[in-house]
Amino acid sequence: MQPVLSIAGSDCSGGAGIQADLKTMCALGVYGMTVITAITAQNTTGVFAVTELTPEMVRQQMQAIFEDIPPAAVKIGMVSSAPIIRTIRETLQAYDAKNIVVDPVMVAKSGHFLLQPEAVDELRHLLAIADVATPNIPEAEALTGLTIEDAAGMEAAARQIAQSGAKHVLVKGGHRCNDANDLLFDGNQIMVLPGKRIDTKNTHGTGCTLSSAIASYLARGATVAEAVSQAKTYITAAITHALPLGQGAGPVGHLIDLYQKGKLTYN
Ligand SMILES: Nc1ncnc2c1ncn2[C@@H]1O[C@H](COP(=O)(O)OP(=O)(O)O)[C@@H](O)[C@H]1O
Ligand SMILES: Cc1ncc(COP(=O)(O)OP(=O)(O)O)c(N)n1
């Protein structure tokens, strides 16, 4: 079983962050490990408090993992502040980490800032070592300064973000209103991952789930194009089976029972 590492924040309500990543990894048949960057108090209605871990504690967690069980892929989610991001980048480089997926988490769907605004430059440096970067539309706008209104805007942003050094850029279309098409740029070509918009309010954790699914499929030996396409299938099914829990945006469903019953395959 391939080991996969999530470096991210904890969501105590279980819909996003580390908890979503572990559920995804479990469903996709890889061995999940975690480095926690911050603890949040949040639920389906919002984020109420955030406490960061120290950069030193983040470094020590990473060291403990890389010295013992080097991951086949690493997903990075909520990173909170510039010193933590720098520590993550330096440690990943020191261990020559493979299959790095960076989800540049900035703002929760509920509107709470999960990244300090002054950390955006450091986040750009982290993107430079990414095999895959997965910004949503507001994140792609913040990283590029562009306004994205259509597929052409998504493509322009993907091309600009790739200049940071990220080998592949997936601009996610979940924030569009007419479809849910995502767009992958590999440095040469654009590939559209078509998606029909599912009419649901229960989309808590979509970005976390997608990026950890990409990391899981990469660890299982898929190419980036294959991993992104299989992860798109997974997130679409997870949104289709989202759970009406809580009073706000409920969490996506992780289909573990469907996979176990053989009704869905891993690819
Ligand atoms: N209502 C929806 N219907 C279908 N797919 C969706 C929907 N909302 C999000 N997605 C998909 O979920 C994935 C995560 O996208 P997005 O929600 O934009 O990320 P984030 O959670 O980072 O804001 C993408 O593949 C996107 O197309
Ligand atoms: C701890 C933590 N990390 C990331 C997020 C953002 O999750 P995401 O899947 O991008 O989208 P929403 O859950 O905000 O819809 C988070 N909320 N908490």
TrEMBL record:
It catalyses: 4-amino-5-hydroxymethyl-2-methylpyrimidine + ATP = 4-amino-2-methyl-5-(phosphooxymethyl)pyrimidine + ADP + H(+); 4-amino-2-methyl-5-(phosphooxymethyl)pyrimidine + ATP = 4-amino-2-methyl-5-(diphosphooxymethyl)pyrimidine + ADP. Gene3D superfamilies: 3.40.1190.20. GO terms for cellular component: cytosol. Residues 11-252 form the Pyridoxamine kinase/Phosphomethylpyrimidine kinase domain. CDD domains: HMPP_kinase (cd01169). One of its GO terms (molecular function) is phosphomethylpyrimidine kinase activity. Its EC number is 2.7.1.49, 2.7.4.7. One of its GO terms (biological process) is thiamine biosynthetic process. Keywords: ATP-binding, Kinase, Nucleotide-binding, Thiamine biosynthesis, Transferase. Pathway: Cofactor biosynthesis; thiamine diphosphate biosynthesis; 4-amino-2-methyl-5-diphosphomethylpyrimidine from 5-amino-1-(5-phospho-D-ribosyl)imidazole: step 2/3; Cofactor biosynthesis; thiamine diphosphate biosynthesis; 4-amino-2-methyl-5-diphosphomethylpyrimidine from 5-amino-1-(5-phospho-D-ribosyl)imidazole: step 3/3. SUPFAM superfamilies: Ribokinase-like. InterPro entries: HMP/HMP-P_kinase_dom, PM/HMP-P_kinase-1, Ribokinase-like. Pfam families: Phos_pyr_kin. Belongs to the ThiD family. PANTHER family: HYDROXYMETHYLPYRIMIDINE_PHOSPHOMETHYLPYRIMIDINE KINASE THI20-RELATED, PHOSPHOMETHYLPYRIMIDINE KINASE. This is Hydroxymethylpyrimidine/phosphomethylpyrimidine kinase. It comes from Heliophilum fasciatum.
